[in-house]
Specification:
Length: 140
């Protein structure tokens, strides 16, 4: 089950069913199933507090993913996304139309076991994001 909610902002994800179907297809292609995943869209301030409290990072970020999986084949977790940050990053990068989906699939890929700290890991993560974004936008 995939849930979408918001904290401290007025945001409702458009095309919820399309997003759910796409995220489930990503999981399937990664040889995983979806357990319980919550996407929580929030403000920069809200996510900064989570970053400081749980990760000891005093920096703004676009996403924080908490993996709650107990089974390596089942994706479960909470994915916090700063809507402020993705809007700003989208404008900066010229990706306003896809930044939300990029960050959403980024969180799902973290739950699937992908990392992004090392250069080669980040390159693989970005390639996966690009691949799955192309699938999402191909259907429009």
């Amino acid at each position: 089950m995939i849930q979408f909610c918001s904290e401290e902002i007025a945001f409702s994800l458009p095309n919820k069913n399309k997003h759910k179907a796409w995220l489930k297809a990503v999981a399937t292609e990664e040889h995983k199933t979806i357990g319980e995943i919550s996407y929580i869209f929030c403000s920069d301030d809200y996510l900064l507090e989570i970053n400081k409290t749980y990760l000891n990072h005093d920096t703004l970020t676009d996403i924080v993913t908490f993996d709650n999986s107990e089974d390596s084949k089942k994706l479960e977790g909470d994915i916090f996304i700063s809507y402020d940050r993705i809007q700003e990053n989208g404008k900066k990068l010229g990706t306003e139309n896809s930044e939300l989906e990029r960050v959403m699939v980024h969180g799902l890929l973290h739950l699937a076991g992908y990392k992004d700290k090392k250069k080669e890991d980040k390159e693989l993560m970005t390639a996966k994001e690009d691949y799955y974004l192309a699938q999402y936008f191909k259907e429009q």
